[in-house]
Amino acid sequence: MRILLNGTEHNLNASQLVEALEALGYKDAVVATALNGRFVPKALRPSTPLADGDHVEVLAAMQGG
Amino acid sequence: MDFYGVALSSRLLLGTARYPSPKILEASIRASRVEVVTVSLRREGGEQRAGQAFWSFISAMGVRVLPNTAGCHSVKEAVTTAHMARELFGTNWIKLEVIGEADTLQPDVFGLVEAARILAADGFEIFPYTTEDLVVAERLIDVGCRVLMPWGAPIGSARGLNNLFGLKAMRAHFPDVPLVIDAGLGVPSHAAAAMELGYDAVLLNTAVAEAGDPVRMAEAFALAIEAGRMAYAASPMEPRDMAAPSTPVVGKAQLA
After folding, report:
1. Predicted ipTM of the assembly
2. Is B168 one of the catalytic residues?
3. For position A9, which CATH number holds?
């Protein structure tokens, strides 16, 4: 399946959001996620299905003003 | 000073961006004795995992974080970012920015009120980055904001208090709402002026981070804010147009 994660295309074998995150090394990372512009809480990642062409955003803490 | 039931003794809130190094950021936070720092959310990627390192750094500082929605230009972006920030940082506080214009980074006040309405209904405690417009400020209060953060001048411009009259009017109009000058300050005298007007606090970033010596500048701002607040509490005299001799005239010798 082809997904766009943080703007980069990945070909993954992942049916749920949590699997995509694990496959790309975010398993233990402190991150917040959005799917196609909608916030997905951590607790819902295992039950959030992915579809071909989905846009995933994975955000973390960063310096800010 | 009280923000959403949280009592704070420092009236300086400090941004964490643009410092020469994490070490200098840490020293600046310590030197200014701030209790609240602003943080942001950005894409986490690559092998570096910069966000994880920053999160560990901030957690170890023992300060309260105020996440922002910097860079958001729409209500949807700002609301989604706020939700992501709440989960990531574990706080209902959100510095709500909805940017309306690229050159001035002026807030889109229409989008701001709408985003604030949505977020307040969802339990967020909102620190809206706004202008000194009183009508907008009333709307923000109406939808649930309990703190207002008018700009001093455009973000990063170092211009100081651009509309003194407007900011004075805002203070007079909202005597009981915590008001924070957010953005546009350049030197400690700007911060002292804000405090002398009766503003409750000042939020800074670039003025400290881009100073030649950020740590010393952070401390200078902290001292200026303390001095300005003390001056406000001491009720400054009103300016007048004509001179008034400070030395008594009574008892002056006739020597002419």
Report:
1. 0.96
2. no
3. 3.10.20.30
